[in-house]
User: What shape does this take?
Amino acid sequence: MNELGRQLIHIFFGLGFVAFGAVFGKTALVELLIAAVVIGLLLIQLKLVGTSVAAVDWVLANFERRDSGLPGKGALFYFTGALLLVSFAQSFKLALAILAILAVADGVATIAGIHLGGSKLEWHPSKTWAGTLSFVAFGTAAAFPLIGLYSAFFYAVALAAIESIDVGIDDNLLIPAAALGIAFYAPVLGVV
Amino acid sequence: MLEEVLLALSLVFDKYYALLLPAALVAGALLLRRRKVLLLALLLVVLVVPVLKEAFHEDRPCFSESFQGDCPPDYGLPSFHAVSSTVFMMAALGSVWFWPFAAFAIAASGSRVYLNVHSPSQVAGGIALGIALYAFSAWLVEVLDRKEDSDVRKEGVDPAAAILTASYRRKPAAPVRRKAGRARRRKR
Assistant: This one.
């Protein structure tokens, strides 16, 4: 599976969570995500002790990055990050908006970075300006129906900046954690 | 019958968690390979959870006059039981001890919802935070180990620092031994 396919699944799952949360509410989304995290952990454990589960092996062979280390790490951290957001965000709408940014902007930025190319970021040689600007544009577009244009743009810019720094922590955990930290101080700036 | 068992189990986790947690720590330190990460993650749990409880000041579901029983006085988000027990489960991932530690985490977390001292969302937040803190600790230990390795390569082992950090585990001797072996063979 190429990076394009992986990112399309990333976007599809993220928007699926946003739609599920918008329709069924916070409690139902928390239950869905906790089930995903627990089942994910159990499957990772089975994989680590050498038990072959055909469906899991197929998913890992087709969707997992070669350098991910722990099998299923990307999916586990994606669900965990989403659960962190939904549980800790001061408002459920904000949690959904950040989830939308995480899903759409992060996915599109990777695709744009690979397919458009262009000049690299000075502080991160494997990321491009095209990817970072796509993150801001698509992040704003994904979040503004939930929290308004001003707040959506603010979060998209802030999270694009954080995503562009290579600290070595998985983006799926770093972005939600950073968003929660920013949300704590955001009201001072007139942001949701 | 099931109700009584669940209630008894929940009360054990409620009243004796201060004993169960150190017992789990001893078991984890003896049985698990990733001890350093486990200890760092638990230290972070102890430091971070009270700060988050105060920062988010989300009431527990038992903060109502109609609740009968003991309601802890601090805030509810995140659940300390859920965060701390999840860290053990993460440290045991990949070993045969995962299953008992997973049972411990599920029982500790579930008991809080069963006793109505935490909402499902507060427990879910605790589980997510436990995974995140464990991942952060694993990353931090890896970064520090890598830095220590490069420092040792550059400057050699400083005995005083090595005693303090208990890191007399660097083995620059391996290639030397091979050379010595080759030299011996050549002599013969």
